[in-house]
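Exercise: predict the fold of this chain.
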Amino acid sequence: MASVPSLASTVQQRLADGLSAALPDAASADPLLRRSDRADFQANGILALAKQLKGNPRELATKVVEAIPANDVLKEIEVSGPGFLNITVTDSAIIDTLAARAADARLGVPFNESAGTTVIDYAQPNVAKEMHVGHLRSAVIGAAMVEILEFTGETVVRRHHIGDWGTQFGMLIQFLIEHPHELDHSSEAEVSGEEAMSNLNRLYKASRALFDSDEEFKTRARARVVDLQAGDEETLALWQRFVDESKIYFYSVFDKLDMDIRDGDVVGESGYNDMLTETCRILEESGVAVRSEGALCVFFDDVKGPDGNPTPLIVQKSDGGFGYAATDLSAIRDRVQNLKATSLLYVVDARQSLHFKMVFETARRAGWLNDEVKAVQLAFGTVLGKDGKPFKTREGETVRLVDLLDEAVDRATTVVREKAEKVGLTETEIVENGQYVGIGAVKYADLSTSAARDYKFDLDQMVSLNGDTSVYLQYAYARIKSIFGKAGDRTPVAHAELELAPAERALGLHLDRFAETVTEAAVEYAPHKLTAYLYQLASLYTTFYDQCPVIKPAPAQEVAENRLFLCDLTARTLHQGMALLGIRTPERL
């Protein structure tokens, strides 16, 4: 289907026509149109134009307004202040534009004409270690960006760069060789994530205790690291057991988060082992990296330590071992050369910003990143407790992600149960909706904050029916669905001939912004802009619902149909917008 013009694009075109008619020399000037609180739109471009043409801005603005012929889109244009244009559109233009959007399965969201291939690196847990609250944001923000970018036409390749390599595996594998039944399962039945993690936890603690207390075991464990890095078959097979056991656990947690993680997308640190030596060779031969005290380093003029000396990116250590930089640079090579990425998006903690700045600059110097291929870190802040400090248990330990998600679902189920009788929900629906509301609450709290900022994890607030929460949006959606259950034979029909009430106008104008908001969220990697839009949509709908009767007291047939049309488009927009954030919208709540 051809792209659906928004009101903004239509108004922009009318103004551009007026500009070229009144001021032929300025035919290509931008009217600088934006949405406004004073009117529906404001155009500020004539101020800059007057400076350029050395004219009086108010006179030029008046000239432009007079050159715009009468039309069915612009109701009123007022010249304001030093030469602003305050623009009010007609009610019929609002409804006609929304009707075109409603006829489009994509609700008017255009495909990006310059779409490419983005590799998103997100949700990166560590093998043989428990997922904690620190793993939440990468998973939630990354999954939302996957959905938003794919919806706008980008080809998205997901990558979960799990921590599955390193010296600790020598200790774990050696312990398993000497205690071969430590990863055995209690039955042949499907293993739960909890059992898998319990096995790994027990083995990790026991092997660590032995490593710290027994010098002979420590020596054997270190020799096992050498075997692993050399590709010894028995050692690799045991390493794979740890990876497989960890995946059972990872996938169970991602399943709780209602996230789709596919096995083929999990390419951990180990996936780039075969590239490390060549990456170092290329960097050294090209002069991008140099040897310093035996280590292979990349230096930067603007990166210095507290002592004022340059702090390098160490690609290969003096003992021949490879650091994280070698793996990250090899991953960039793979993603650009083999996956044909045009954009690399890393959803990684802000505390790693310096590392990635150095890695990206190194990749640019090597020619792997350039004007056609960009790399961006979508850096995120920390999850804080109610007290504004990093989120910990009462004992001062890091909060397990599973516990946090379970508690969110428990709290949400209580909230759902309190209203269940009024709606007539079955026990199955209560349990299901508790999941949707609880997990939605966690995701929404994360996504409604700009990624770069820290945010407070407050479950009481997250599952509240009032305020900027996902359940407020879910409740607005369910409320609309209940209206259609009571509408009888009345159906949604757009009536452009009707005069709109203020609450109808406000809702209609906001519905028109959906496409530009999704586009902005995709281009700027900013899912919080979509959550802010959806919250305002639910708020405007609540005002509309209070002020504009749809069913009772029964309005005239055309008015009822037009209001049902606005209800229907609001529900579809909420449903689509929430889906892009990875949040479910129950039909009854």
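Check your answer against the key: The domain at 7-89 is CATH 3.30.1360.70 (Gyrase A; domain 2).
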